[in-house]
Amino acid sequence: MAGTDKPKAKPQKPAKVTAARIAKMMAEGAAMIRNMTPEERDMIIAKSMSEESASNADEAAEAKEDANESEWAQCEGELFAAKFRSFWNKYYTDCGATFEQTTSIPAMCHTYPASDCSTKAMDTLQIMSVKVTSIKDGLGLDWPLEVFGIVAARDVLDHKRNIIFHRPRTDCQIITQDDCYLALTGPTRAIAVSVDPSYIEVSLKVKGTTEAEDTDLSDLVLMYRTGCCPGSVFPSRLSTLEIEFRHINRSVEATVHIKVIGGSWPDGFHGEFCAGISSSDDLQVKLLDFEDGGLPVNADGEIKLSRRVVSVGVESNLKVSVRARPINKDHAAESSEAVLKCQRAGTSPSGIKLSVGSCNMEVSVAWSCFRRAW
């Protein structure tokens, strides 16, 4: 009847797979092959052999590539570095980040958290130092070295580069066999650690007379996570790198500021500022190390620290210290320190002082927990 809807067809149930049905399908396939012409059978066989050959060739090429890389790589970190960019792009470009992008999360991000912002303490990685312990003989490298490149961490907070060391080719750091530590300037915020993998990325070069003569010094990517952190010594084809770091359980981020409030730095003295967990001298981070050129300060008296961010366990205290070392051995070294109780947010109480000679300084610390971006 016109205008009457046709009854809907009932959905077909999938055929039940039984031994009899499988036998029938095999028989039908065999019959199909018997009914083919010799030319059709030859064409199918040739196509099958071609596909198998191509698959075997791809597997062989991949195995050869892995073997070649394993032959020159001196450690797993160097082998991973060769594939890291494509690996990272595969998993993280969909999150809206690019490979060379630096972290968009600043220090002190949650010093004053909003009421609806849920933050927490996290495990963190505290990097104290990075140094080139040796270079390989006979490969064109000789001390001193003009080093440029990058050392950065990537963690679960945003997977972008958190810069620890960065020098362009136009502003190399000269390191010697006796003074082989890199001048670190980061991290820019604390490095979070979780059960999900995060990475330390190293890409260092030695400047040549021309760019074409620049030489790789160290290319590494080190994976770390809770319960599984890498070692500290990393050999590569041309050098050996040593990274001194510690895993800090249930920690918060401390951002240190030091300001001169009176007097001046004593003449003829080098200076060193450090900060870290008060119970361990091994966990002290060098914030500034300067020679007899005078204490670097801005117009407001704020000391221009090379590094500001350290990690502190929630049950620990933070020690901030200064040491003045005399150039003339007839003079004695001077030092001063302050200990602050860890906080989860806010800033430290005012009136925390350091003093060396007539130079009086005030310490302030901004505390922050963490919030995962995605």
TrEMBL record:
Residues 124-365 form the DUF6598 domain. InterPro entries: DUF6598. Residues 49-68 are annotated as: Disordered. This is Predicted protein.
